[in-house]
């Protein structure tokens, strides 16, 4: 009898561990093999790059404190005020003045927020302070406070150092024409007619671009088309009105060759809004591919 009980217990254990597997791991119904939740849930967050004179008093106090300390590269402080999160970004010490930080995109993957930015060097032949400086900028986003924040700051060569090669999308100070203000938009806050066009773009194999007017704004949607992995994104650098046309300068950013990406079909898109322009206005898109050798190892 005792022997029979032992055999029964061994059989029960065999069935139990056979069901669970050797590692005891468990995949929920929403996390099937081949899916990557972090890549699947990635979304672009609208953000505002702030000017010092418009900061709330609480945030200004933090600004003064950060400026008085030696700032390393990355996020130096985070302040919540009136439903918005203010992030202080620094790019480390520089030997002269004239450096600045330009935030290109803010994305959220699960509980992590990634701030993609570039440090812009002084223009060649410009007159700058010959002293150690620490470039600092502040952005604000409307999101939950219970998140982790990471920065990816890319070093960009000055325009004069490109030696006649294809130029990067122009910076504000390097271009002629009227620079139009732009706002990176989130899919959840878009008007319904813009959401419909964005949905179409996200299922397009070839990608492209489309313009949608709604009230006082014009929404510009850019799609890269079908890509075989995650990690691709679009950075819209500038929107310029020149020679009777609207010029949109953007970059297609490829995944870092040393990074981990999900093996899944994606359709990278980006949406921005600008002050309303009429539909008969000609829009030219200048989209440059960034080679993998230019990817920052940060």
From TrEMBL:
Annotated PrcB C-terminal domain ranges read 85-142, 218-275
Q: Which Pfam families match?
A: PrcB_C (PF14343)
Which UniProt keyword terms apply here?
A: Signal
Region span, Disordered: 28-47, 154-190
What sections of the sequence does the record tag as coiled-coil? Answer: none
Q: Where is the composition biased (Basic and acidic residues)?
A: 154-175
* Signal peptide interval: 1-21
Which named protein is this?
A: PrcB C-terminal
The scientific name of the source species is Marininema mesophilum
């Amino acid at each position: 009898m005792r022997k029979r009980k032992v055999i029964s217990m061994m059989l029960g254990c065999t069935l139990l561990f056979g069901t669970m597997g050797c590692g005891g791991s468990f995949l929920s119904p929403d996390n099937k093999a081949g899916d990557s939740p972090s890549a699947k849930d990635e979304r672009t967050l609208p953000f505002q790059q702030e000017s010092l004179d418009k900061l709330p008093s609480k945030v200004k106090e933090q600004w003064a404190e950060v400026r008085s300390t030696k700032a390393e590269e990355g996020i130096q402080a985070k302040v919540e005020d009136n439903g918005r999160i203010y992030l202080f970004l620094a790019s480390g010490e520089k030997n002269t003045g004239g450096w600045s930080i330009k935030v290109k995109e803010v994305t959220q993957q699960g509980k992590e927020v990634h701030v993609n930015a570039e440090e812009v060097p002084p223009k060649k032949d410009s007159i700058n302070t010959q002293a150690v400086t620490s470039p600092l900028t502040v952005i604000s986003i409307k999101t939950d406070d219970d998140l982790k924040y990471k920065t990816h700051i890319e070093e960009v060569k000055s325009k004069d150092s490109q030696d006649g090669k294809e130029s990067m999308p122009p910076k504000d100070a390097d271009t002629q024409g009227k620079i139009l203000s732009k706002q990176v938009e989130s899919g959840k806050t878009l008007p319904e007619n813009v959401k419909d066009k964005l949905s179409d773009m996200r299922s397009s194999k070839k990608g492209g671009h489309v313009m949608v007017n709604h009230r006082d704004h014009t929404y510009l949607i850019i799609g890269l088309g079908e890509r075989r992995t995650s990690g691709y994104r679009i950075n819209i650098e500038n929107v310029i009105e020149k020679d009777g046309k609207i010029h949109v300068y953007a970059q297609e950013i490829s995944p870092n060759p040393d990074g981990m990406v999900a093996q899944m079909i994606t359709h990278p898109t980006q949406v921005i809004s600008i002050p309303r322009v009429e539909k008969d206005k000609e829009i030219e898109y200048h989209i440059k591919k960034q080679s993998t050798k230019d990817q920052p190892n940060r």
